[in-house]
Structures are given as C-alpha cells and as structure tokens.
Amino acid sequence: MRISxxxxxxxxxxxxxxxxxxxxxxxxxxxxxDTGSGGGGGNEQVGVALxxxxxxxxxxxxxxxxxxxxxxxxxxxxxxxxxxxEGDDQGQITAIEDAIARGDKGILITPMSTGVNAAIxxxxxxxxxxxxxxxxxxxxxxxxxxxxxxxxxxxxxxxxWAAAQMDGQPATIALLDLFADKIVSVDYNRDQGFLEGMxxxxxxxxKNGDEAKTGKYTSGKGGTYTIVCNEAxxxxxxxxRTAMEKCLARNPGINLVYTLNEPTAVGANAALxxxxxxxxxxxxxxxxxxxxxVKDGVIGATAQQYPLKMATEGMAAIAEVARGGAKPTxxxxxxxxxTGVALVTDKPADGIESITSDEGSKICWGN
Length: 367
Fold this sequence. Notes:
Elements: H1 11-26, E1 46-52, H2 58-70, E2 76-82, H3 89-102, E3 106-109, H4 117-125, E4 129-133, E5 145-148, H5 151-166, E6 171-177, H6 185-198, E7 214-217, E8 223-232, H7 237-250, E9 256-259, H8 262-274, E10 280-285, H9 288-295, E11 301-304, H10 307-322, E12 337-338, E13 342-345, H11 357-361
Parallel strand pairs: 1-2, 1-3, 3-4, 4-5, 5-12, 6-8, 6-9, 9-10, 10-11
Antiparallel strand pairs: 7-8, 11-13
Helix pairs in contact: 2-10, 3-4, 5-6, 7-8
C-alpha cells in the first residue's frame, strides 16, 4: 500500500518529541511490582519482545536502550533480540518463535523483509499483539499496527531541499539504497520520496530504479537531471563507500548523492574524498553522529526521525492492549502511527521548514 504524503514537519513537532523522550527516560525507574509474565488486567507484568534488524546500527541501539530504560514504567518484562546484520531474516524468525515460546504478550519488530511475514502471522495467530517499528511491512496488515516515521515524507523533505540547493543547475544523481535483493518499504519510500521531492516522476512508487534516467526535475527552479546509479549499500558505512566508488566509476561528475541513512552517507563521503570529488549529500535518520555530520558539512541535510519514541510508545501500547485497554489506531490519512520527522540543515531553503544542527543535536539519538 502506498503511503500517503503529508507535509507536517514543524519546529514544534521536534520540540514535542524531545519533551516526550525526556519524559520517558525520566520515568524509567517507575513501575509496578513484578507479578510474573502475562497480562489481562491491573498492572501485571507484560512480556514484550523487541526485535531489531541488528544490534550495531546506532538507530537500533538507541531503540533498544530507550525501550530498556522505559520498560519499568509500564511494568514490562522486555526481551531484546535482533538479526546478526541487515538481511538476516532467519535471526528475526528465531526471535519471533522464541517470543511465542516464552508466552510474551506482544512483539515490537523492525521487520527485515517480507521473509519474516509468515513468522509474524504465526505470532499473531498465537495471540501476540505485533507492532512494527520504523519499517512498515508489506502488506501493512501483516502486523496489528506500525509506529514509524513517514519515510515518504522524510524522502520528500530532503528531495525538495536538494532541488533548492541545485538552484536550477543540472543534477547528476547517485542513489545509494538499502538492498538489491529484497523489497523493503523503508527502502523504496525513502528513495522514491526523494525523487518526488526533487520533482522527478517515479514509475512504480514501490520500486527503486525504474524511473527515467534522464529528464527534468521540477522542484525549486527546476532543471535537468541524470540518474547515474541505484546501488545497494546495506545501510552500512563500508557499503556506502563501495557503492559510491561504483557510481563514480560510471560517472565522475556526480554532484548530488541520496543516501538511505547516515552511515551510508559517511561511506559515500569517504569515497568522494578519496577520488578528489565533491557532491551534495542528503540523508535520513537524524542520529547524533549524523547531525554532527551536518554541522561539519559532510551531509547537507538529513531528515531526523525518533526511534526512542517508536519503541517506548509501541511498548506502552502493547502493555495497554494486554491489560484489556484500547488498541492504537493509525493517524488520519495513513496506515500507521506517525512518530514525526524534522529536516535538519544549516542551509535553510525558502518554503521548507527545518531546524538547525544545533537544534537537532538537542533531540538526537545515539553517540
């Protein structure tokens, strides 16, 4: 299902996220007595599994640490698990099966790919309430609900900003995506959102790489574009460097680089430096390291999302449902709960709401 487009990024949103994050962390030592696993009323302890894609990406580390700090607030017995690395479907499947065997009441998962859909269905059939975090599954109703950034909007924000910075000049573009062998919503929504933000027509909005390789972008002052490459970087710094090297080998004149996330952006920048080239780099995530890269001029702009909010609100929702409370519902016009996004840049563009790197550093996550 295609994610609806909205432009609701505001400075107030970023501030409210910061307040919510601080509140969640300050409350980490509050909670009811440990009365055993399970739910069903009162404040009995609820077993919840948090299953991320890996345990090394700062985004997922922040999600794990935030959930651990906030678990006692909702009297949750939290178990954290993950795949070994991006693409490890089996690692997540094993963690899902373990949650079922433990008798957990719910699962929070950043689904690796459609390869874990059957295991999620098995969990739901066993009575577990399953919430996807960050990455809406395909189809969306594989889980009970998703708590996530509007990744389409995040891509559109950096695309509009990039078009404004190009100022009508020809854009020679490298697209550094997540996977080459898997279809994941976070991957195509960010990539296709970026192109839409640039004002470039996309063909299939759920498929990377099938748009016209040359044409005109219409955002900002508009101009011509050439897409040099769609390369998979697997969300990692070394992958970003390798992908950028491949793109530069095809066309050393690349002047605009879209990256799925900030580790990829850092790797891309290293490849550009090694080749003696410069290009405008845009990205998505908003971790503290990424915000610093904006301040240092490595990344021109990044769309900041809030993994701690995804995890803590999702965990609270599972505890509420397990105790007989109301189930969360998607936000209006979307098929998920939107946890917010803000454009972080020190080069603001007319008509595009943004916050500075100094402001972003106050509400970032990770080291």
